[in-house]
Amino acid sequence: MIPLVIAVAPNGARRGKADHPAIPLTPEETAREAARCREAGAGLLHLHVRDAAGRHTLDPDAYRTAIAAVRREAGPDLLIQATTEAVGLYTPARQMAAMRELRPEALSAAVRELVPDAASEREAARFYAEQAAAGTLVQHILYDTGDVARFEELIARGVIPDVGCSVLYVLGRYTPGQRSQPCDLLPFLAASAGRFAWMVCAFGALEGACAVTAAGLGGHVRVGFENNMTLADGSTAPDNAALVAQVAAAAPLLGRATAGGGAARRLLSSPQER
Q1: For the chain, what is the domain count?
Q2: What is the 3-state secondary structure (H, E, C) of 38-93?
Q3: Is residue 233 one of the residues assigned to a domain?
């Protein structure tokens, strides 16, 4: 089996200290958490940054400050993925402008945000082509099987290039209470052509179960306080590293080693390695 990429999303766009006192919000906190998660088995950091008031931002300077801090604490190998998430604040044009200025090594983008309709396709295609030419690893976020079909269509028509490409299946986003279950993965796999490396993230106490299911089926996983703060035994995780560690501990049972940053870079490009 191929190595398992464990990504960590340590904060997200909305949660704060009232949700968990250990959630990292500042660059320094995020950097220390990234280092702990790397030691626990993470090969990728899904990075959100906040402004001075603690609000979600795509500001390139805020990203640069956080990335520099992570590099100091966690070293050069950890793959850092910038989010383009709109959170109702950013238009597609502003999302793309931020990434053009930042020029990250990797980014994640929801297909339904950047290419919501036919009128948006030309500019999105230009953006994706620029990222492909720059060697950026783009992870396309898919929330349901409709998104999978839309993604496959955009690939087929060349709107989205088929290089430097992976997908993230978001399990249970529209279920009552956002409580994901491992079986939520099955429709995604049935709808996908299976050309690209894939990863899952999940909500709620079964995040770990969803992650291990995906790992057993050849996928990669993302865990962290962005979507879940509960360990498999029902207790609150003390930090993000604990969520990473419980998945890493299960990987050998599946015949998989955890991937460092270098392996993550290789595995999250196309085509899918088998």
Answers
A1: 1
A2: HHHCCCEEEECEECCCCCEECCHHHHHHHHHHHHHHHCCCCEEEEECCCCCCCCHH
A3: yes
